[in-house]
Amino acid sequence: MQNGSSFSGVENGYLHSEKFDDDGRIKRTGDWQSASAHIITAVIGSGVLSLAWCFAQLGWIAGTITLVLFSVITMFNSILLTDCYRSPDPITGNRNYTYMDAVKSNLGTLQHKLCGIAQYGVLTGITIGYTTTTAISMAAINKSNCFHKHGHEADCRVRNNSFMVIFAVIQIILSQVPNFHKLSPLSVVAAIMSFTCSLIGIGLSIAKIAGEGIGKTTLTGIPVSKDFSGTEKMWKTFSALGDIAFAYSFCFVLIEIQDTLKSSPPENKQMKKATATGIMASTVFYLLCGVLGYAAFGNDAPGNFLTGFGFYDPFWLIDFANICIVIHLLGAYQVLAQPFFGFVETWSRKKWPQNKLVTKEFSLCGFDINVFRFIWRTSYVILTTIIAMIFPFFNEFVGLLGAGTFWPLSVYFPIEMYISQAKIRKYSFTWIWMQILSLACLTVSLVAAVGSTRGLITSVQSFKPFQSVS
To answer: Which helix (H) or strand (E) holds 129?
Structure first.
C-alpha cells in the first residue's frame, strides 16, 4: 500500500524520474528475497504450533498427505495469482495494487465486492487470532518460570488479558508504519523468528524422542474408544483440516507483497521464485514440526506444543521459543493488517480529497504522521484486542479462520482470475479440471468450517473467564 505522497510523481511531472515507477508512484525496490521474507512471515506463524495436534487427529497417513496436498494446491494457485498482478498482460499490463484490484480487473465489480468482504473479514479475523496467540505465548513464559520455581503440579494459571493489552500497545506503535514498502526490515526479523521457534520445537521434539522414546502413535490418529466417540473424532478431524488450511494462508496478501517488487526482472517472475521459496521452506518446517511433534507426544499431542506444556524443560529454551513467537507475530500482524489499513485510507482519500485530516502528512522527529491514519489504526488495534479477549481460543479459532480463508481467497479467486486473463475456453479440459479442483477445495473448507464452529461453540460454553487459555 502507499501513503498520500505516493501520487505526487504524476502530479508534479516526474513520471519518468528515476525516483518513480511507470505508474508515477515512488519506485519500488523490493526483490524476490524480500518477498520471500514477507511470505515466510505470513505463512510460518502460529499455525505451526498446532501441527502435532493435527497429526494426532489425522494420523501418520492422512496427516502427511493432507499437509503435502495443501502445500501443492497453495503453490499452484499462488503461481496463477502472480500473473494477475498486471492486467491484461502479466508483464506489460496495468498494475493491480491490491488483491481486490486484481479481482476487479479480471472478474468485475460484483466479484470485487465479494472479494473485499472475504479478504478483509479474514484479515481482521487473523489479527484477532494473532492477538490471542501472542498473549498465550507471553503467558506461557510466565507459567514456565512458575513451574520451574514451584514444580510442575503448581497452580500457575494466569489471565491473558494483560498480555493482550501489552501486545496492543506495541501494535499501535508499529501500525504507524505507513505502508507495506516500509515493512521489509520487520518482515526479515519476523521470518528469522519463525525459523527459530520452529527449530526449537523440532529440537525439543527430537530430545523428547531420544530421552523417552516415540509416543503412542497410530496410522489413523487417536483411535475411537469409549472415551472418544466416532462423532468426536469426526469433528476433531474436520477442525484439524481447518488448522492445516490456516497454516498455508497467505494468498490474500500476495498481490500486495508483489506490489513491493521492482519492475525488472518482471514482477511475476520474481514473485513465482519468491512463492516457491517461501512455500517449500514452510512445508519442510511444517512436516518436521508435525511429524516430530506427533512422534514425541503421540496421540496426547497438545493443541499448542510450546504453550500447552508438553515441554517443561529446559525452561529457558521454552521461554526463548515463546519470545521468538511473540516477535514473529508482531511482524506478521502488520504484514496482514497493512492491506486493510491501506484499503480504508485509500477509500477515505478518494471520498474526502479536500479534508486535511485525511490527506495531510506531518513530520515529527523524522517520521511521517497522518492524523486519520493514527486514529483509524489505533481504533482497529483496540477493537481487535477487545474481541480477542472475548474469544481466547487457539485451535478452534485457527481452524475457523483457515476454513474461511482457504477456498475463496486461496483457490476460487486465483483460479477464476487466471481463467479470465488466460482466456481459457469454458468446458475445455483445463477449465473442467480447474473447476473440479475448486469444488474439491470448497468441500474441504465447508467440513473444516463446520468442525471448527462446533469446537468453538463447545469451548465458549465451557469457558471459565478467569482461567488462562492455552
So the answer is: helix 109-150
- The three grid cell numbers given for residue 183, joined into one nine-digit string: 515493512
* Rounded distance between C-alpha atoms, residue 18 and residue 3, angstroms: 19
CA 297/CA 56 separation, integer angstroms: 9
DSSP per position, 252-277? GGHHHHHTTB-SSS-HHHHHHHHHHH
For residue range 257-282, list pLDDT tens digits in order. 899 898 888 999 999 999 999 889 88
From 83, 102, 101, select the one nearest 92 (Cα to Cα). 83
- As given in the structure block, the three cell numbers for residue 286 are 511444517
256 contacts 415 by C-beta, under 8 angstroms:
no
Cβ atoms of 126 and 249 within 8 Å: the answer is yes
Q: State how far the Cα of 109 lies from the Cα of 107, in Å rounded to an integer.
A: 7
Q: What pLDDT is attached to residue 312? A: 60
Q: What is the DSSP letter of 266?
A: -
Are the C-beta atoms of 297 and 310 separated by less than 8 Å? yes
Instruction: Say whether pTM exceeds 0.85.
Output: no
- Give the residue among 206, 246, 264 at the shortest CA–CA distance from 66: 246
